[in-house]
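Notes from hallway chat w/ T.B., transcribed later so I don't forget. T.B. wanted the structure written out for a chain they're using in a teaching module, and asked if we could keep both sequence and C-alpha cells in one place. Agreed to drop them here.
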Amino acid sequence: MADKKIIMTYDGLKKMELELEELKTVRRKEVAEKIKEARGQGDLSENAEYDAAKEEQGEIESRIVQLENLLRNAEVIDEDQLKTDVVNLGSTITVLDVEFEEEMEYTIVGSTEADPMNGRISNESPLGIALLGQKQGAQVMVETPDGEVAYKILSIHNK
C-alpha cells in the first residue's frame, strides 16, 4: 500500500527541512556530548544524567524518522497556480463569526502544519473543510461541540 501523501505549503516544507537539519547537525551532537559526559561520571546504573541524555537521544531520533517520512510523502501545493477567487489550501481568509460579529483570519494549511492558536487551520478540520472551494461572500455552517456556527467569508487572499 502506498503511503498517504502529505499536502503542505512551501513554507511548511521549508520549516520541516530546517527542523530536520537542526536535529541532525546540532541536536545529535549536543546529546552525544551529554552522553559522553555522563559516561565519564562512572556507574551508569545510577546515573540520572545518562538516563536523561539517552531518553533525549531517543526522542531526537524518533522525530528525525517522523520528519523524514513526512518529507518523503510531501506534496507541495503550487500556490502560484491556485485560483484567487476561491478558498484553497494556502489561502488566507478573513471570516466573520455571524453570531458574535467577530472577524478572524485563518490560513488553510495541511494537517502537519496546523497551528490553530496562530491562525493556521488544517484543510481536514471542520472549518477548513467548510471553507475550501467557497467564494468571497459565501456563508458556511460548521458543526462544533457547542452546535452549529455560521461564518461569512469576507476576503480571500493567496500569497
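Follow-up for T.B.: The mean pLDDT is 90. Might be a good example for the class.
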